């Protein structure tokens, strides 16, 4: 589990508290033109930067269908044209690691292994550097409470993209089972929501915009299951 | 005033407005002062004209002050603007003395206002030295840089850096513009106001009426570049591209510029542009007053393709404006244009007049692609570059500054 603050999303009466968040993006001043520089940057950069480059694209202006699932993979594939490394970096997930430092080293290991096996990788230089950024999330309680599962669809429809990010994406860093807040809340209450939770895990946050995720969540909650 | 903010909800989404109100609860009564060098002309003034009342609508005690000076001051600051973007001009000691002295006088005049504010946001180099003359400051001071200083003339940046380093933090439009500074550098792209006269919806009839003085030919495709007459906007390169296209297909070009009250170089560039245009009746070189927002709006809506062939650009709000009108943009691969123009999605990035000509020809040949790109461009702006997003970024930044926890990845606001 990657460490971080735990904000109780459940109230004492088992309602789901809806939070929102607004990102603040920060330049680190660190950039890389080569894989070796990327490794050096990864070694020293703020831990928030490592996390940012896996989730941050959801909160930044992007229009393209992402070919890869995170910024490290995208830059490697696009600027260095090392498709092998890009693919390997694409299947590493923050939730696979206990904490951000292990995650950092996991990424470095993948890149160093690539350097060991391919001499060309040592000399490849990008035209556009990789700029390490980090972000700060300002998290605030909206005051909205979801008391009953039947309220989920309407509640999600009215959520901002910041709320969607916080409860569906960022939650995977916080929750004990590395899942979104909706799944965690449903599982903690009585009722058989196993099927619904499985359907929720099928929504891959890496390849959708927050707007698309919101729509899919609303549709899913509105479809109506026997449990509701 | 609440209805003022709610009108943006009809465009950006009600959830966006709700988010702004929630975030602003932490900032009620906070005194924020913005300082720049002009209230007329230029992207910064346009943004502040709306940002200030919106912040006030949210309960923030926001105000706006401008530093003014004589011709020598503007000569110096224009030279700073150019040299920070890579130009090799030498700025004399005499001009720097005028710059320092103007900032000192401004600090004297505004001492109490600035010293007692909770947050002061100083925009660009013109007022940057003010901080030196207000040593006892209550609040946090932020330097907001709107220009591309990724490759500055080093001596000028080293001079300016001595002032900027005294700030509590800085804001840049893109990460590549940031520099080594002893404080946190935030990244906030600028934005457009969708309800302004420059960006509001216009009917087809209104567009025709507004552009009728320019005698444009109705059935001939129109290329448009809207920018100050400035070398970094490469208006000569745009004319070259037009001429290459014109050899093969009918097309007309409008270059629409004006001047910001703090830009003394414009006349020289305009003269050169008129020479390059020559007697071609299909090249229209317009010098518009600084308040010709509706005219620019109409021209952008009439245009088939928006051009912004800059060789240096801070962010490029004219690109954002053109995209908001649902037009594809052919832009120089520089600065903030790279953040907005995505090849084959919202337009094309080019590196030469020849590149621009190539893409113009392609788009003229493919009206279906123009339509699709234009639609994507507008939606991209809606989600990322409207004033509401910009305001949200400022609010989040202000909360972060006032809480003083810039190193924390998460900053939690507690609802009382």
What does this protein look like?
- The complex is a heterodimer of chains A (228) and B (416).
- Helix content of chain A is 47%, strand content 15%.
- Chain A has helices at 35-44, 47-55, 71-79, 83-90, 100-117, 120-123, 152-157, 161-174, 181-188, 194-201, 210-222, and strands at residues 16-32, 130-146.
- In chain A, strands 1-2 form a two-stranded antiparallel sheet.
- In chain A, α2 (47-55) crosses α5 (100-117), α4 packs antiparallel against α5 (100-117) and α8 (161-174) crosses α11.
- Chain A is elongated.
- Chain B contains 16 helices and 13 strands.
- In chain B, β1, α3 (43-57) and β2 form a beta-alpha-beta unit.
- In chain B, α2 runs parallel beside α16, α8 (204-211) packs across α11 (293-302) and α9 packs across α14 (353-365).
- The longest helix of chain B is centred in the C-terminal third of the chain and has 18 residues, at 367-384.
- Chain B is globular, with a radius of gyration of 22 Å.
- Chain B starts with a helix and ends with a strand.
- The interface between A and B is large, with 37 and 48 residues.
